[in-house]
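dude i think i finally got it to work??
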Amino acid sequence: MTVSSTEQAWVKDAQAGSAAAFALLVRAHQQALRNFLRRLAGNHAEADDLAQEVFIFAWEKIGRFDPARSFRAWLMGIGFRKYREGKRGWLRRMMRDARYSETERTVVGDPDLRLDLSAALEGVPVEQRAALLLCLGQDFSHSEAAEALDLPLGTVKSHVARGREKLVAKLGESHG
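look at this
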């Protein structure tokens, strides 16, 4: 995915201290980031909290960002690392899960298939899940996912292939 000149201008303005320019970047990328984190974490509340942390971190570190790079890939990488760091305690996560039941989630299409997909994704190792979600769910190229996840390109390709195999096997079991 190429970086637009508009996005590069917003990044440069944000690096100069423009909160309005950074707000435009947030608006342009927040839904993709939240969707990625929701699928990765399997929990809307945790994902939304992580997204907030990502944007705060990005604002604090925007000066170090290279505007020639993909801002979206940079955000996804921060999100993945924040998720992997596991800063959330298990008690907070359990309390959040109790407040947000599966019925509160927006279900598109067959609810049983949505639940099967969520369960199947939970069974995929986190790095494979992240690669799958970026490449298949966010339309990232393998190289963009490698950049976001800070992994070698071959590793990302392997994660996508193996993760896809695991998903197909899991979904086949539940609908077979």
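The radius of gyration is 17 Å.
im so relieved honestly
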